Amino acid sequence: MVLLLVAIILPKSPMAVLAAVVLLIHLHYKFQSIQYQQINLYKQQQALASIHRLIGLRSPLPVLGEWAASPDFLTIISEIILDRKPETIVECGSGVSTVVMAYLLEKNECGRIFSLENKKNFHKRNRQLIVRHHLEKYVSIVCAPLISHKIGDNSLECYDTRQIADLQSIDLLIIDGPAGNRYPVLPVLFNQLADDVFVVIDDCKREKDGKNILRWLAEFPFEAEWIDTEKGTCILRKPLRN
User: Fold this and answer.
1) N or C end of the chain: smaller count of CB under 10 Å?
2) Does the predicted TM-score (pTM) go above 0.85?
């Protein structure tokens, strides 16, 4: 606003020229931001429409985006589930994604989701959500508070996984929680992963989550596929054996 006033009051001064240039640059980036938001909104609407075509909802879904998974992320998970038909899915952080995945397992007529939830209010709410959609056959919302795990020389907080300790062949691991440091998830669960596991990570555009993935790639035998979704997605796979 100050720059605009300078350009109006002193139209021929060097400051006015500078003000006009700065203002034009600002408007350019503002326009680009609005354009990106419009394109992203269209993509999310398309992704949500495709999800609705895949599953026959028995009750409305909660609002997607922000803290919940975005539609484009759910579309990627949907394609993996329909293509690979995983028997055992472990999800870090329950919510809308749990419901969508459960409908897909129902469509496949096989598989079960073990959704780790460390927050008691979310645990209760999402169990009710599963019941409302009549998907109990395909989902266990596991109350898994954060506890200390010994990882290398450090003690780091991660989900209490004792309730899923007997799972020895996790086919699909979804990492969308917990809030805070998600690095310990893979070290804690690595020995329970199937050889052909897919590890799908949300929020990869956040710096800390991107760094976690680079650290995992340095420490574990995975290859990464980065996908440009709203929040950023990465899929980790173990290299194919010759």
Assistant:
1) C
2) no
